[in-house]
Amino acid sequence: MYCPFCRNADSRVVDSRLAEDGSAIRRRRQCPECGRRFSTVETTSLSVIKRSGVGEPFSRGKVINGVRKACQGRPVSEDDLAMLAQEVEESIRASGVAEIDAHEVGLAILKPLQKLDQVAYLRFASVYQAFESLEDFEAAIAVLRRDSLHGSSAPAVAQGR
């Protein structure tokens, strides 16, 4: 790590702390050349692979924008959307993969969205699970009804379409 003050190529870690709810490490460093201190933040990278094969960094903002459309006209706040995006990111990071297909990100949104708003869930699921008929909607609604009776938090529709 180069010192931002004198550009010396060496520095020593003085202190390390968890940051951003444990998803990053904040390190306080000191340059042995000039003696000045500076901070760095280390995070693991998470790449989303698009259909074109191009990778880009995971973005909570893109999750929020995609879900916002499904939540249009529903009683869902911006804070709810931010919490959903955080939950999606945490579940993807917990899977231990460094790269994930964009379609898999869409599927990862389904479970927390189902808990947040069932109508928005159906809207979103109809796209990401490629509903082709009214029967697909009816089956999803039947599973939602069954899950709400049994208090299940399992995804309402099989994700293998």
List the helices and strands and how they pair.
Layout: E1 12-19, E2 24-30, E3 37-43, E4 47-49, E5 55-57, H1 60-70, H2 78-94, E6 99-101, H3 102-116, H4 118-128, H5 134-150
Parallel strand pairs: 4-6
Antiparallel strand pairs: 1-2, 2-3, 4-5
Can you describe what's shown?
With 161 residues, the chain is an alpha+beta fold. Helices cover 44% and strands 19% of the residues. The protein contains 5 helices and 6 strands, in the order E-E-E-E-E-H-H-E-H-H-H. The strands form 2 sheets. Strands 1-2-3 form a 3-stranded antiparallel sheet, with no helix packed on it. Strands 5-4-6 form a 3-stranded mixed sheet. Strand 2 and strand 3 form a beta hairpin. Helix 1 packs across helix 2, helix 2 packs across helix 3 and helix 3 runs antiparallel to helix 4. The chain is elongated and about 70 Å long. The relative contact order is 0.10.
Give a brief description:
The protein has helices spanning 60-70, 78-94, 102-116, 118-128, 134-150; strands spanning 12-19, 24-30, 37-43, 47-49, 55-57, 99-101. The chain is α+β, with helices and mostly antiparallel strands and 161 residues long. The strands form 2 sheets. Strands 1-2-3 form a 3-stranded antiparallel beta sheet, with no helix packed on it.
